[in-house]
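#onboarding

Welcome to the new folks! Below is a worked example of what a typical request in this channel looks like: someone posts a single protein sequence, and someone else replies with the predicted structure as tokens. Don't worry about understanding the tokens yet, we'll cover that in week two.

Example request:
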Amino acid sequence: MNTTKYAMRLYAVTDSSWLRGRSLAKMVEEAILGGATFVQLREKELDQEAFIALAKEVKQVTSRYHVPFVINDNVEVALAVNADGVHVGQEDMAAAKARQLLGPDKIIGVSCKTPEQAKKAQADGADYIGTGAAFATTTKKDTRALSREELQAVAEAVDIPVVAIGGINAGNLLELSGCGVDGVAVVSAIFAQDDPRAAAEELRALSDQMVAR
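Example response:
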């Protein structure tokens, strides 16, 4: 399944640690209403049953707004809820195996830090690449920020969409202008905010500017 470059424009990655009593499904809806174009459910702490239950709730929202919805790392959950696809890292299931399990019509995204990884992911059937960290991030402690040149090299290595992730917020997003990425993926810049809809609106406007430059 081919994802459009537009779908990468503002890619929202969930994190329930910032809910503060709020519903994740409702926060996802607010993010979409603010301009998020893609949603990834990433829940490292949930057991399989709870993960599936949450995925079903979120999928109802993304389906209502026709926004692509993928599951982080877990093909079984993606299959159980008929998600639009999965996102895998270099240490997770290989893209080729995920494609074999999910079939030709699902979305597969792969995290890549080098042009070589990106080329292999595309050859293995990936529909898009996530690359970073674009900036220092607290979400993944062991991840170093890639240079602007490294980000650009990944984006130029493939002809599928590339989204930058890692430490991106409204204050630094425009620094990615000219890197060749098709959009940005954010976690805390939306889900840690008091008003996720307003945060998404600002980020979407900035991402549109970034791509246009």
